[in-house]
Amino acid sequence: MPEVPHDVKDMGLAARGKLKIELIEKRMPVLASIRERFEKEQPLAGKRLSACLHVTTETANLVRCLKAGGADVVLCASNPLSTQDDTAAALVAEYGISVYAIKGEDNDTYYKHIKAAVAHHPHVTMDDGADVISVVHAEHPDQIGEILGGTEETTTGVIRLRAMEADGALQFPVVAVNEADTKHLFDNRYGTGQSTLDGIIRATNVLLAGMQVAVAGYGWCGRGVAMRAQGHGARVTVIEVDPLRALEAVMDGYDVMPIAEAARKCDLFVTATGDKHVIRGEHMEVMKDGAIICNTGHFNVEIDIPALEAMSTGRRTVRDFMEEFTLKNGRIIYLLAEGRLVNLSAAEGHPGQVMDMSFANQALAAEYIVKNAGQLENKVYIVPKDIDEHIAALKLETMGISIDKLTPEQEKYLASWQEGT
Ligand code: ADE
Predict the structure, then answer these.
(1) Distance from the CA of 92 to the center of ligand 1, in angstroms?
(2) What's the pTM value of the predicted model, to 2 decimals?
(3) Are 148 and 373 in contact (CB under 8 A)?
(4) Is 156 in contact with 105 (CB distance < 8 Å)?
(5) Phi, psi of 241 (to 5 degrees)
(6) Which secondary structure element, helix H or strand E, spans residue 371, and what is its range?
(7) Does 267 lie in the same domain as 248?
(8) Residue 91 sits in the same domain as residue 169
(9) What is the pLDDT of residues 43-67, one digit of tens each?
(10) How many angstroms separate the CA atoms of 318 and 326, rounded?
(11) Which of 4, 91, 372, 421 makes an SS bond possible with 97, Cβ 3.0 to 4.6 Å?
C-alpha cells in the first residue's frame, strides 16, 4: 500500500485497528451491500471527498465504502477526544486513506487537521458537527465553486446549517442525514442510549440501579439515555424546556422538573440538549457531595466548565476520563471526559448495528449529491424518502425479518375516501 499523507498517533497500532475494522464489518451488512454495488458502479469516481467524522471502526467501514465507490477520501476527526488511534493507523496503512486524527489532540491540532481536510479541495463534504462546512465558508470561500454539496450527520450540525440557510449564508446544498428516520430513530435513540451508559460505566464503574439520574433534553438522544438508565434500575428525572417533550417524558413515566430542583436531588447528570450552559455554576453549587456530571451532546458547551473551575479549590484525575473537583463549599463533583461526548470519549460510540444505517444514509447521500450535481439549491435537504425506506427494508432483510404487504383490496381502501363504515 503506497503511503498517503497523514497525521495519526502511532502506525504500530495498524494491525490491531484492522482486526477491529473487519470485526465490525460483519455487523454492518447494509453498508457492505452498498460497498459491493459501489465497487461495480463507481458512482463517486473522480470525486474528492473530505469527511470530518468520529474516527471509529464504524467510520472506517464508511470510508472504505466511499473509496470503493471511486472517491478520493480524506478523513479528519470531528471531536478531539473521539478518535480510535488504532483505527486511524489502520486506515492509513491498510486501506490507503489519508487520516488526520489523534485522540486527545489540542484545539490547534484539531483545527490544523480540519484544515488539512479542507486543503484536499473536496467536491463533497461530509460533516459531523458542520466544522468543515464552517471552515470552508469562513476561511475558503474561494473553494465553494468546486463543491457539489455536503452531508451532515448530527442534530447539532443540522441546527447550525439551518441557521446558515435562514441567514442566506449557506453557499452549497447539504443533505441532513440526521433527519432520516433510519438515522435518528435508531442511532440517536438506541445508539446514544447504550453508548452513553457504556461510557459512564467504563469511566466510573458506578452501579446505576437505585441512582437518581437526571437527563437534560428529551430529544431522540435524551429519550434513549433515559430509557436505558431506567432499564438499569435508575430513578430517572427529565429536564426539558419544550412543553410537548416534557409532557411526553411525564407520560413515559419519568419525573420532570426544572434543573434547579433536579440539581439538589440527583446523583448523576447527563446533558443531551445541543445547547450551551445547561448545567451552570448555580446548579453545581447545590449538587450533592459526589455528584457526577457528563455530556453526550456534540459540543463541550453544555456544562459550564469555566464556572466549575472558578468555584473549585482543587482538581485531580481519579480515573481515566474522570476528574474530581473540590468545591469551595467542601463538596466534590466528578466531571467525565472533560465535558465532551462521554459515549465516544470514554467508550467507543454507537455500535455497528445502528451505524450501519446511519452510514448507509451517508454513502447514499453522497451518491445523491453527485448524481444531482448542479440541480440542487443552497438549502438543507432531507434524505429522500425512497432512500430511507430502502435502508429500512435492507436492514430488516439482513436481520432475517420479513414483513407483510398490503393486499390490493387494502391498497384500494387506503386510496379511497368514499368507503366508510
Ligand atoms: N457517532 C456516534 N457513534 C459513532 C461511531 N461509532 N462512529 C462514528 N460516529 C459515531
Answers:
(1) 19
(2) 0.96
(3) yes
(4) no
(5) -115, -15
(6) helix 352-371
(7) yes
(8) yes
(9) 999 999 999 999 999 999 999 999 9
(10) 12
(11) 91
Mean pLDDT, range 340-353, rounded to an integer: 98
Does 113 lie in the same domain as 17? yes
In this structure, the dihedral spanned by the alpha carbons of residues 192, 195, 196 and 200, taken in order and rounded to 10 degrees, is 180
DSSP count for the chain of H helices, then E strands? 18, 15
- In angstroms, the CA 77 to CA 304 distance is 24
Q: What is the pLDDT of residues 228-271, one digit of tens each?
A: 999 999 999 999 999 999 999 999 999 999 999 999 999 999 99
In terms of domains, do 145 and 249 share one?
no
Q: List 124's β-bridge partners, or say none.
A: 49, 149
Please, which pLDDT band fits residue 419 given cuts at 50, 70 and 90?
Answer: confident
Query: What secondary structure letter does DSSP report for 347?
Result: S
Contact 124, 363 (CB under 8 A): no
Same-domain status, 100 and 221: no
Domains held by the chain: number: 2
* CA–centroid distance, residue 87 to ligand 1 (Å): 13
| Atom 9 of ligand 1, nearest CA residue | 54
The answer on pLDDT for 334 being more than 70 is yes
| In the block, residue with C-alpha cell 381502501 | 413
> How far is the centre of ligand 1, averaged over its atoms, from the C-alpha of 361 (Å)?
14
Place of cell 499523507: 5
Phi, then psi, of 260 in degrees rounded to 5: -60, -35
- 172 alpha carbon to ligand 1 midpoint, in Å? 25
Instruction: Show contacts of 142-148: CB within 8 Å, 24+ apart.
Output: 143/118, 144/171, 144/172, 146/121, 146/122, 147/122, 147/123, 147/171, 147/172, 148/47, 148/123, 148/124, 148/172, 148/173, 148/369, 148/370, 148/373, 148/374
Query: Which domain range does residue 298 map to?
Result: 190-345
In whole angstroms, give the CA distance from residue 295 to residue 300. 7
| Residue 406 backbone dihedrals phi, psi, to 5 degrees | -65, 140
Residue appearing with cell numbers 473536496: 122
Query: Quick one: cell of 104?
Result: 486527545
Q: Return d(Cα 141, Cα 138) in angstroms, integer.
A: 7
Residues having CB within 6 Å of any atom of ligand 1: 53-54, 56, 58-59, 191, 344, 349-350, 355
H or E, element range at 332: strand 332-336
